[in-house]
Structure formats: C-alpha cells, structure tokens
Amino acid sequence: MSKDFYTVKKQVEVEMEERKSIFICNIKRVTNEEEAMNFINEIKIKYKDATHNVYAYITNNGISMRYSDDGEPQGTAGPPVLEVLKRENLNNVAVVVTRYFGGILLGAGGLVRAYSASCKQGVDAAGKVKESEAIVFELKCDYEKYGKINNYLSKRNIIIKNVEFTEIVTIEIMAFFNEFQKIRQDLIEMLNGNDIINIKEENVTCFVDDEGKIMEVPS
C-alpha cells in the first residue's frame, strides 16, 4: 500500500441528539463495495421509518468512495460523513447516519456539524486498527529440517495459518508483503538452495496491532 490506512475494529451503533433530532451512526468494516452496499441497505431497512439514512463508504485502498445525502440539502450530509472517514485515513469501512427529524431546522451549517459529529462519534466508538498488505505462502520441508525452520519462524513477525504432518511437513504462512523476500531467501538457504515455496495468495489485507505485529482479524 502506498500509504497507511486504517479500518474500524468492530461494528457499532451510537446515538446522539441535536436540537431534538436523533442521529444514529452505524459503522462497520467491509472488504469491498458490494459488502458496503449490503450493509447500507440493511440499515436502511432497519430504519425505514427514519427521515433520512445518509451514508458513505471507502474501499479499495481509498480509491473507491461513494456517499448519499438521502434527501438532505445537497452537500450537507453525505460529504461531511465521507470527509470524516477520509480525515481518519479509513479504508474498507461503511457508515450510515440515520436521522429522525425533531421539528427544529438545523440549517446547512448545523446539518454539516451534526452529521460530522455523529460519524466521528461512531469512529471513536468502533476504534481504529492499521491495515497492511500481506502475502500467504506455503513451505514444504522434511522432518529433519522442520525444527530449524520452526525455530526461525517463531522469531519472525508472521502468522502460521496451518501445519500438516504427512510424508513431509507443509507449513502455511502469512507475512507482511514487504518482508516476504527476506523470509523467502532465508528459508531457501536453510533448505540448501531448494526453493519449495509456493505463493497461495497475494494482495491480502492484514492488520497491525499496537506493537507492530501482524494480525488476521483486529483484536
């Protein structure tokens, strides 16, 4: 990835009141635009009696973005929500801010502030986790080499996804993309120059904990 992106740790729903209007923010981590729209439609059905269901999402490393004012004055709802997501460097996230009108007009400036505040409240409640790019690969070795390789892997910032013990040992590993070549070269040297490493998945989204360690799912 060309820049650091974050996503939300968990799905949350938070509510606030602004001059008798109720604003409900629902926010969720998604992996693509289809998931984003499915989530948005679920919330719109859940709150089908609301005055407005404003939404925004960002996916594809910040490239794919979309928003809707859903009947609010143009530019007073969807864009402010999207701007909060952009300002927080969020990716793979969808948010719906539902409004139940309380009878008092907020004006354009008031709407921008209220929708922005509701979205920010949702982001803060959901928490943020850093995204990174990973690669999943498979390594095959004999039992004689397994101990040495396992000792090496235990000291690396990786995830061992699976180990199979048959006639040989097969290890499935997830590693940060930018560390893969170094790990691969080290393993080849341990295997006396034999390159029996098979890449299974590239461009995999992974997460980074507060200590910089790789995670599959935010904790």
From TrEMBL:
InterPro entries: EFG_III/V, Impact, Impact_N, Impact_N_sf, Impact_YigZ-like, Ribosomal_Su5_D2-typ_SF, UPF0029_Impact_C, UPF0029_Impact_CS. One of its GO terms (cellular component) is cytoplasm. It comes from the Bacteria. Residues 139-194 form the UPF0029 domain. Residues 19-121 form the Impact N-terminal domain. GO terms for biological process: regulation of translational initiation. Pfam families: DUF1949, Impact_N. This is FIG000605: protein co-occurring with transport systems (COG1739). Belongs to the IMPACT family.
